[in-house]
Predict the 3D structure of the following.
Amino acid sequence: MTTMYQDRHHRWVYLFAERSDGAKGLLGGKGAGLADMTHAGLPVPPGFVITTEACNAYYAYDRQFPEGMWTQAREALDNIEARVGKRFGDKENPLLVSVRSGASVSMPGMMDTILNLGLNEYTVKGLTAQTGDLRFALDAYRRFISMFGQIVMDVAHEKFERVLERYKAQTAGNRDTDLTPERLCEIVADYRRIIFAEQHGHLFPEDPYEQLRMAIAAVFDSWMGRRAVDYRRVNRIPDDLGTAVTVQAMVFGNMGETSGTGVAFTRHPSTGEKTLYGEYLLNAQGEDVVAGTRTPHPISQLLNELPTAYKQFMTITQQLEYYYRDMQDIEFTIEHSNLYLLQTRSGQRTGAASVRIAVDMVHEGLIDETTAVQRVTPEQLNQLLHPTVDVDPQAGIVVLATGIPASPGAAQGQVVFSPDDAEEIARDGKKVILVRQETSPDDFHGMVAAQAVLTGRGGATSHAAVVARGMGKPCVTGATMLEIDYSQQQFSVNGTIVPKGEWITLDGSTGRVFVGQITLVQPSLGADFYKLMGWADEHRCLRVRANVDTPHDAQVARDFKAEGVGLCRTEHMFFEGERLAAMREMILADGVGAREKALEKLLAHQCQDFSGIFQVMSGLPVTIRLLDPPLHEFLPNLQELLTELSDLKSALRRARNGRREEQLLEEIYEKRALLRQVERLHEANPMLGHRGCRLGLLYPEVTRMQVRAIFEAACKVQGEGATVRPEIMVPLVSIADELRHQAALIDEVARQVMDEQGTTITYSVGTMIELPRAALCAGKIAAHADFFSFGTNDLTQTTFGLSRDDSGRFLSHYVENKILPDDPFQVLDQECVGELVQIGVERGRRVKPDLKIGICGEHAGEPCSIAFCHKAGLDYVSCSPFRVPVARLAAAQAAILDTAGSSLDLT
Ligand code: ADP
Ligand code: MG
Ligand code: MG
């Protein structure tokens, strides 16, 4: 790099006419598009591009232009002068230029552009003479001063806006086009005074070359501006791409009623319909259309006003779409009925439009199926599966708070702060959103009743997040700016108070929270969706399964074409009502006998749950994980118990009659017993404590009960004609003998039940690989396993030594400060957790070449992590049911990229 920057002959500048190779990386999207169109002979005002390399050099040199750049820019400017027959800074026949930003990836509206550059006290007279139009020249001048003042000289936009509004208000029509030359002169004078005052006596630069130099630097600077940096962070765009700067001869849309400016998409950006969709304004310039200066007209109306230009534009838009083989977003200006193209780029679109356009273009023969599969991003597909918030950036809707986008989709409802309220209010048919500091299994019923969940703490794998995703409900977690006050039944954000009962809208796809009811767009899956998914399935190597806990989830997964269940968490079945009581009884039992009696009650429930899932998944494998969480999760909270106990005691002191006293004493006695048990089970680090297979090792009767339930259900459902393929999975193994012990137990009980029932079930036994030690001794473990499933949530937690329940508080700081590229609980840390996965795969398969290997952590639904799983040679990924289509697409894209080799340019 350094050598390139020091090379005096390095090319920093290219004329449009010089490049036709679509060098987006170097010229930026805008520059490359203009060069392409120039080369294709389309009417483009001449210009040149200062490369993204120059921008990076500018930053490397402490915000100085690299050597040779300025000279090359001036030479290029000479070339433009010759082409248009005007001279930059000339008093009689001045050339004006625009100075435009543009990176290789589209960042609409994030950086700055300056129009009409080159105007000053003298050249404005030249422009008047040149065009014979004083009003126009002054209009261009006032636009230039305000743009330059704002972008280059850092004067607040509103200062200019206020002046303009005041003068407009004095005209008959309150329009900028009604301003007379006299008024425009006054505006210019006012603008110059504002700049003088704001710049502490610095005058507006009169020298056009000085203006140009300052404007180029300002565009470079805008790359590191707050807006651009934030946009890149949200959209995961690297900071070192740099922006190119395009300098281009001006054409004028503000030269009266035969001139105008507009924007159009070659297909509808919301629906994908094949129709030209756009807007224009006559007698206007630049951003007037998007800025809402006046209300623009639909593009079709241009046919009546300027038919020749319109027809020419129609033809060109089709040409451009054909050339790029993608939907284009095109900017144009008409000067005295002559059409000029100012930009073409592939247009931003919704998920629905993306799918429709990809499929239509295959049918039209513009692209092949493989390209279509690559055209739709997994996130766009995701949008299609959930309602979304429809926020027009122009509408001025304020985001109240943002958190982690934990479960996609949008929802709205009235705020409630407790699960019981959620249930009660929802029972009346009302929509509620459950707002909690964080959720626990006790809140489950509230989550079921709520439309969506919002928490102040916790990350993307917090309880709230995992449960919400499993249910396909929108969820925003870790909205740390929320001050939740349970006692007042309200939360506040920077002084805005939201009480219980107030409506909010939550967008789980972006993590945004709004006050009130924002318009939602409902999803609809049409034929195009199924067609595209079919093409995707032809490409992928990874199989896609789903994590499901109930027959209902299983049905959702199967409808999305999941190829089995990769993870059924049996403990989720224990959190509800009666079952929780039986579970507590089991945990609190004294001795094996009492425990087995309690387990008897659970057996029936488990058996029923498994039957339902087996029925839905007939013919497909169902992986059932044995009990995993620490037992205290099923017991009441220690703190609460203590409070209840002290309440009971004070009630006892106040009690007046003997019967009541007796009753209370009994209750106190029971509570004390419970308290002792809870204290006995209390662990300082429960996630590293007595959980996973460690439970089954100490309480083999729990494993026996679960395995019995699985096989009784399997025999029954198979007897009804379904094909049942259970895979029993032992969690949290780190020592080969743990698995050996559990596997022997599983086989023993399986044989017992099959003998009793006189049925044979084809089943397999495997383990989670979710501890570093398990990955390292995968070879020994594989000896006892038919399959591995990487539990990357726990594996991430234990590799980093980072609690996933608490890390939300500081991980965002890590990501913001680039200490970590991503939250490792959302995007798999390929560097180290990934290495453990690779080691696990390699050592496992060395011992057992046909070992089936999958992944069932949260990462299994995340596209980058799926690409990694493909490369690592996994057999399947297993994600939440609503992520299944996303995973199918991501797996296909990974496979396509793999066969195409890394040389393929996908930008
Ligand atoms: P953005 O990246 O925000 O779209 P642009 O660089 O495309 O910014 O500029 C915004 C608008 O300014 C364009 O859509 C176009 O209307 C106008 N514009 C830019 N350059 C010229 C030019 N050379 N002649 C006339 N109008 C221009
Ligand atoms: Mg533009
Ligand atoms: Mg785990």
The longest strand covers residues 338-346. Residues 45, 98, 100, 109, 113, 115, 248-251, 261, 286-287, 331, 333, 342-343 surround adenosine-5'-diphosphate (ligand 1) (CB under 6 Å).
